[in-house]
Every structure is written in C-alpha cells, then in structure tokens.
From TrEMBL:
Pathway the protein takes part in: Aminoacyl-tRNA biosynthesis; selenocysteinyl-tRNA(Sec) biosynthesis; selenocysteinyl-tRNA(Sec) from L-seryl-tRNA(Sec) (bacterial route): step 1/1
Gene Ontology molecular-function annotations: L-seryl-tRNA(Sec) selenium transferase activity
Keywords from the UniProt entry: Cytoplasm, Protein biosynthesis, Pyridoxal phosphate, Selenium, Transferase
Domain L-seryl-tRNA selenium transferase N-terminal residues, every copy: 6-45
Presence of keyword Glycoprotein: no
Protein family (similarity comment): Belongs to the SelA family.
Native source species: Actinomycetospora cinnamomea
PANTHER family according to UniProt: L-SERYL-TRNA(SEC) SELENIUM TRANSFERASE
Protein name: L-seryl-tRNA(Sec) selenium transferase
Cofactor(s) in the UniProt record: pyridoxal 5'-phosphate
Modified sites of kind N6-(pyridoxal phosphate)lysine: 278
C-alpha cells in the first residue's frame, strides 16, 4: 500500500525556510508570505499539486507587493477609466511619490528651520500653469472642491443652478445631493433643455450664496437647447462657480467643446473647480482656481482641514505640472497612424493570430462626452476578454460586436511588450 501523499505536504516552517522566500519575507512580511504558503499547502492536500511542488508554487504565486491592488493594462480605449484608477501617473510623478513617501519637507523651510507653507511647490506649479488664477488651492478630489465652495459660499443660503446641469456623474454620485448635504438649498432655473441669462437674473436674491455652472460630463443634450456661459453671469452680484470637471487647464485643439480653466477665468468667472486625475493626468485631487480673496477664504474655512491632501498628492501633482507630458495627454494626442503601426507590430509578435482593426476610443471620466478618438488595436474572439482579464498580467479589453478589441490608445507604448506576452499566453 502506498503512503497517503498528503502526509508528504511540507510543514509551514520548512517552506518558510526556503532561501528563495528570504526577499519576500523582508518586503511582504512573514504573515503575508505565510498566507501564500498555507494556500499552496491546501492545494497539495487537495491533490491539485504535488506535495514536493509546494515551495515552487509559493515562489510562483507570491504577490509583488504587500497591497492587493495589481497593475492592469488598460486596453479599453477609455483613457480615464474610473474602475482602473483614472489617470496613469507619469514617470516623473511616480519618482516624486517615492521621494515624498518618507519624511519630507512638506511643511518645513529647510533654509530657516521655520514652518513652511504646506505644499508650496505644488501650489506654485499650479499657479504657474494657470496664470489667470489669482489664487489656487488643492483638496482631495473634485467633489471635495465643490463641497468646500458650496459650504463656504452658500451654506444656509441658496445655490442657483440650471435644471439641465443637475447631473449624476457615476457610481450613483449625484451632484445635487452633494450640494444639499452642505446645508445649501438648490434654486433650480430653466428647463431640462433650455436656460437663459434672465432665468438666472430672476432667481438671484438676498438668499443667493452662489451661482453654480456644472459641466454635464457624461451626457449631452442636443436639438432645441440653450445654456448660458458662466462668464455672462458674473455681473449678477453673487459669486459664480464653474465646475469644469475634467481639469483642462487651457484649451485643447482636439477637444474644442471641452471647457478649460484659463478661458473661464479670462471670461471673468471668479472660481473654477476641477479634478486632478482626469485630463490633467495627475493624482486624484480637487483644484480650486480663481479670485485671490475668494480662494484665500476657502483655504481658511474650517472644512478645508478635513479635505486636505497628503504629501503624496502634492508631490505627484507638482511633478505632473512641472514634468514631461503626462501619459493621458500623450494618449490623447498620439496620431492614429502610430497606433496602427503598434497594432501591426503587436499582431506580428503573436504570430498573426489576431486581426488589426480600426476602432474608436474615448476620453472617459466625464470628459469630452460624445467625442470619438480615432484609434487602432487588435481583435480576438470575444471569449478572450475574460482570459485576458484573469491572466497573470491582467489586461482589460473591450467587447464589441461579438469580439474582444484590444484598443491601443489607452495603452502606454512601454506596455506593448507586456501586452504581447499576455496575448500570447491567452492564444496558446
Ligand atoms: C468628475 C467630476 C466631478 C467629481 O470629481 P472627482 O474628482 O471625481 O471627485 C465633479 N463635477 C464634474 C463636472 C465632474 O466631471
């Protein structure tokens, strides 16, 4: 009679003593490595792997970091994919994150030894990038920027807002609910499709704390419509706040209909809010740009402390603003001919087992709704999408018209070799 193979499953301590796990014990910690060992022992007991293979299995399945989030190749063609962490950071921003991760001079003037202005470098970079803003401030995200503005300017009073701009942005986040949570009341003007300057003028009164203009983000109203630019509401005697959403600091020729901070400020809008991790291509952040006194009032508001960004955000934002073109910008601007050439190289790398296709990418994250960005990629059978996503180097593609499309506009070129390897594994 042969011995039960389960008795040959090595003991935990014996596996942990394997020299190949030394590095992992240092970077992941003993408890995390032990979990992987226990899982491998379980597979051996279940007969899925040989008892002698437990240590090899552990080495093969150790996570790269102690956190569970894994790098994913975004081949959806949606440049700013909320489920994939929106903007991928530039190399410069990643370096800055690493440098700021330890103790750092975020609030200390090293020359004098006195207290320094928190995040002075990031704020100076933002001010330099938006010279039309007399004051700049950074909070945790776009929603926080709106919350701060609404609380400071309109709590206990009214926010005048067009009916067509009372939007839900995604994941059930409804802007009107957020605004009312500050204690402000909403004074809706106009109809779903049309609003005029007179509507705003008639609604403004002693109760009005601010007028809010919102970029409707992920939807468009077409046909019999009219809206009012924020700049033509500035003489109604109350502050006008323009939530441009996407975070374009200046006009972009490829996105002519997308609002930008510089144009709004030049039109006299006193306060603009935007997200840092949309078209700006930086870390999650909320930008407040505008009139110096107004921004100073927001910065001093007690709520500002609760919405404060950490040193990592400040470091990544400054590097995004001062460093080379961030990936999101490069993805937006790369000519389709380059994407086509990369698709052909990719197809050749996997032995021609995929078809090179033309497709349409999009900005995503509520930016440039309805704008199709001409793109190229490769197509596989639809079932490949699940296999790519579940692979060891996960790739998220798009399923359309019964096939799986790997869109290259949202893939940084330096990920092409990894992408080819992932495709080859799935095609095998
Ligand atoms: C995305 C967006 C927000 C919310 O910004 P977050 O950074 O996601 O908090 C608010 N308003 C508009 C118009 C947006 O597009």
């Amino acid at each position: 009679m042969s011995e039960d193979p389960r008795r040959r499953v090595p003991r935990t301590d014996a596996v942990l003593a394997d020299a190949r796990l030394g590095q992992a014990l240092a970077t992941l910690g003993r408890a995390r490595v032990k979990e992987v060992v226990v899982a491998a022992q379980g597979r051996a007991r279940a007969g899925e792997i040989a008892p002698e293979a437990v240590a090899d299995e552990v080495v093969a399945t150790l996570p790269r970091t102690a956190a569970s989030m894994r790098p994913v190749i975004n081949a959806t063609g949606v440049l700013l994919h909320t489920n994939l962490g929106r903007a991928p950071l530039s190399g410069a921003a990643r370096d800055a994150l690493d440098a700021a991760a330890g103790t750092t001079d975020v609030e200390l003037d090293l020359a004098t030894g006195g207290r320094g202005r928190r995040g002075a470098g990031a704020l100076a970079a933002l001010a330099a990038a938006v010279p039309d803003a007399g004051g700049v401030h950074v909070v945790n995200n776009g929603a926080a920027a709106l919350t701060l503005a609404a609380t400071a300017l309109a709590a206990g009073g009214e926010i005048v807002i067009a009916r067509g701009e009372m939007v839900e942005i995604g994941d059930g986040f409804r802007l009107p609910d957020l605004l009312e949570s500050t204690g402000a009341r909403l004074r809706e003007v106009g109809t779903t499709n049309r609003v005029r300057r007179e509507d705003y003028a008639a609604a403004v009164g002693p109760q009005t704390g601010m007028i809010l203009k919102v970029h409707p983000s992920n939807f468009v109203v077409t046909g019999f419509t009219s809206s009012v630019p924020a700049g033509s509401l500035t003489d109604l005697g109350v502050p006008v706040v323009s939530d441009i959403g996407s975070g374009l600091l200046a006009p972009h020729p490829l996105l002519p209909a997308e609002p930008d901070a510089a144009s709004e400020l030049r039109d006299g809008v006193p306060l603009v809010t935007a997200s840092g991790d949309k078209l700006l291509g930086g870390p999650q952040a909320g930008l407040l740009l505008g009139d110096a006194d107004l921004v100073q009032g927001l910065r001093r508001h007690p709520l500002a402390r609760a919405l404060r960004v950490d040193k990592l955000t400040l470091a990544a934002l400054e590097a995004t603003l001062r460093g080379p073109t961030p990936p999101v910008r490069a993805m937006l601007e790369v000519p389709v001919s380059e994407l086509r050439a990369r698709a052909e190289t990719l197809a050749a790398r996997v032995g021609g087992a995929v078809e090179v296709v033309a497709c349409d990418a999009e900005v995503g994250g509520g930016g440039a709704p309805g704008v199709a960005l001409p793109s190229a990629g490769v197509a596989l059978p639809a079932a490949a999408a699940d296999a790519l996503r579940a692979g060891e180097d996960p790739v998220v593609a798009r399923v359309e018209q019964g096939r799986c499309v790997v869109d290259l506009r949202s893939v940084p070129p330096e990920a092409d070799a990894r992408l080819a390897a992932a495709l080859a594994r799935v095609l095998r």
